[in-house]
Amino acid sequence: MLAFEYAKNLGLAFQLIDDVLDFTGTSASLGKGSLSDIRNGIITAPILFAIEEFPQLDAVVKRGLDNPADIDLVSF
């Protein structure tokens, strides 16, 4: 059970770092384009946290982020 908890928490930490790097990293450092998660319609933790602080973003996310202007809006 201890190994399971360790692995779960390690995985969560990795995912949170990956989510933040999508906003702050460069294409060269990431090995993929920055904001690629958002451009692919993947809603990550930073966006969910931003919606809590800025509820108007919820409508933008629900539209599907197909509009480049919406991507610019949620990538603050």
Automatic annotation (TrEMBL):
PROSITE patterns per the UniProt record, alphabetical: POLYPRENYL_SYNTHASE_2
KW Metal-binding (keyword) present: yes
Gene3D superfamilies in the record: Farnesyl Diphosphate Synthase (1.10.600.10)
Cleavable signal peptide: none
Keywords: Isoprene biosynthesis, Magnesium, Metal-binding, Transferase
One GO process term, biological-process aspect: isoprenoid biosynthetic process
GO MF term set: metal ion binding; prenyltransferase activity
Domain of life per record: Eukaryota
Protein name per Swiss-Prot or TrEMBL: Solanesyl diphosphate synthase 3, chloroplastic/mitochondrial
Species annotation: Vitis vinifera (Grape)
